[in-house]
């Protein structure tokens, strides 16, 4: 009994569908990674100190806040990609636009919360011991990421 089946035997155009699907996955993955990197740099630029250095040095508040920021950016990027409709190009463009707007809203909201609460985020991130304010800022990142992600829906 021969088990080997060719794509042509499975159905006409099956190989083409798989090829387009793989291409779309790769393109959305690249877009997602780029948006995540942009989100990280947006947090870094708007935060006092060099965030990647603070994280690399293992400062606990910087690690906690950065991790929360990255997860919140992922919420936004995932929902932006999930809600994309139309053809591949339209979907990628919509994901890019919604992702960028979401990142701006996320950063603005967190910075506003820090200002309203009087948190000196630069001092918090540079501290060598964990501080309660880091959890407030981290929670703000996660909460705003969810709010922005649902707003995209």
UniProtKB/TrEMBL annotation:
Keywords: Cell membrane, Membrane, Transmembrane, Transmembrane helix. InterPro entries: DUF350 (IPR007140). It is found in: Cell membrane. It is a multi-pass membrane protein. The keyword Plastid does not apply. The chain crosses the membrane at residues 25-43, 63-85, 91-113, 134-152. It holds the Pfam family DUF350. Signal peptide: none annotated. Belongs to the UPF0719 family. This is DUF350 domain-containing protein. It comes from Pseudonocardia adelaidensis. The lineage of its organism: Bacteria, Bacillati, Actinomycetota, Actinomycetes, Pseudonocardiales.
């Amino acid at each position: 009994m021969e088990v080997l089946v060719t794509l042509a035997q499975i159905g006409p155009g099956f190989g083409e569908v798989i090829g387009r699907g793989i291409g779309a996955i790769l393109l959305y993955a690249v877009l997602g990674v780029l948006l995540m990197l942009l989100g990280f740099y947006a947090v870094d630029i708007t935060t006092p100190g060099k965030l990647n250095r603070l994280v690399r040095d293992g400062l606990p508040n910087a690690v906690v806040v950065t991790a929360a920021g990255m997860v919140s950016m992922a919420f936004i990027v995932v929902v932006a990609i999930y809600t994309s409709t139309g053809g591949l190009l339209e979907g990628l463009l919509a994901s890019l636009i919604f992702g960028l707007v979401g990142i701006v809203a996320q950063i603005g909201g967190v910075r506003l919360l820090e200002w309203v609460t009087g948190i000196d985020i630069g001092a918090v991130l540079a501290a060598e011991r964990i501080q309660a304010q880091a959890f407030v800022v981290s929670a703000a990142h996660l909460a705003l990421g969810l709010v922005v992600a649902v707003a995209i829906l």
